[in-house]
Amino acid sequence: EVCRDKYDAVLPLVRLLLHHHKLVPFVAAVAELDLKDTQEANTVFRGNSLATRCVDEMMKIVGKHYLKVTLKPVIDEVGCPTELFHRALKLLVYPISSIGILTAACMVENLRYYVDKVFREIVRSSISCPTLMCDVFYSLRHLAAKRFPNDPHVQYSAVSSFVFLRFFAVAVVSPHTFHLRPHHPDAQTSRTLTLISKAIQTLGSWGSLTKSKLSSFKETFMCEFFKTFQEDKFTESVKKFLDDVSSTESKEPSGLSEPVHLKEG
């Protein structure tokens, strides 16, 4: 309410609070205010409020190494596809012949391979999730459950809206901004990463893959593609992962942490 553009204040505010170990109680306080104005459970933490922007910046600072060990190997693999994969990607969007359709089918299999690999790397990565992120997710989860006590799923969607939609999915579609790739990806690789990111967002959304969710895709082939993911094992994997990253129970040291740089220069 004081800043004309509150987003300019978010990054220095988060760095200051991280330095003084006060970020978790601050995020909990502004998130509680945010939830007071939230009328529906399915819109929890979906806007760009002070609370959500603070969590975004915290994840970028604290979760940098977590992203690197979880996603970089598979992102590097996507960045070096075969020429057949590139040609199939074009034909998948604009199938112009029976040969094109057959090649597109090959592309769908490749896309499923990448989506499945990214998804598996994410859901098995909870042991590497920084403790601070887990503490923040724990607070958000319980605040959402308290605000909407009659919705059993909101405690999961409150966490998935950050860790899947605003963290992993964003890093997949823009790996260069998270230092997962040295340069902006070329047009074809960017297209592939966009499709993978959409898939991760959908799989990470708490609940089953309903017809309404499937119909939200502009690409008709994506609707068919996601029918192969309509299995309980994917939902259960997401649930277990969200339980793990929003728990305050002590985890075994992963040996993957590194110092967080709050100041440069």
Keywords:
265 residues, mainly alpha, GTPase Activation - p120GAP, domain 1, GTPase activation, RASA2 protein, GTPase activator activity, RasGAP_CS, Rho_GTPase_activation_prot
Written account of the structure:
The protein has 265 residues and is mainly α. It has one domain (59-245): GTPase Activation - p120GAP, domain 1 (Orthogonal Bundle). Helices cover 66% and strands 0% of the residues. It has twelve helices and no strands. The radius of gyration is 19 Å and the shape is globular. The model is unreliable at 94-102, 208-212 and 252-256 (pLDDT under 50).
Short description:
By secondary structure, the chain is mainly alpha-helical.
The count of DSSP E runs of length 2 or more, i.e. the number of strands, is: 0
Count of folded domains: 1
Helical percentage: 55-70%
The amount of beta strand, in percent, is under 5%
* Structure annotation, total helices: 12
The CATH architecture is: Orthogonal Bundle
Terminus-to-terminus distance: 31 Å
What is the overall silhouette?
A: globular
CATH class category = Mainly Alpha
| CATH homologous superfamily identity | GTPase Activation - p120gap, domain 1
Radius of gyration from the alpha-carbon trace, in angstroms: 19 Å
Query: If you average the pLDDT, what whole number results?
Result: 80
Keywords: GTPase activation
Domain Ras-GAP: 5-205
InterPro entries: Ras_GTPase, RasGAP_CS, RasGAP_dom, Rho_GTPase_activation_prot
GO molecular function, one term: GTPase activator activity
